[in-house]
Here is the input.
Amino acid sequence: MPLNPPRFHLAFPVSDLAKTRAFYSGLLGCPEGRSTDTWIDFDLFGHQLSAHLKPQACSDVAANAVDGDQVPVRHFGLILDWEAWHQLAARLKTEAVDFIIEPRIRFQGEVGEQATLFIQDPSGNALEFKSFKSQDQIFAH
Here is the structure.
């Protein structure tokens, strides 16, 4: 039976499994799936993240300018509904998370207007959480 909608799977390198577990399970609230001494699966809003212990593969990420911010070129994340994004942004601020890009509205008043924020896991992987007031703006030109 097909999944509806399909689930996304992403495998990525991390430098420390204990810190990774604290970040994804603790801070972001991702339930943990299967794990071994070299990897951990997390449920990120129904999507499977596989954190693989490979410290030598963790490196700094280049950035590009986007609407006045230096956006990490290599990143992943989620598009949340408007209210859920604001709740997450408030919780991360309460937790005194160091933001790569503080929560803000990008492309204000333009096509593709969106709420966005960027954080970084303990291994340097950049995550973006964004939201659109209108879902039809996600792929708008």
In short: Helices lie at 17-27, 82-94. DSSP finds two helices and ten strands in the chain. The two ends are 34 Å apart (CA to CA). The chain has a mean pLDDT of 95.
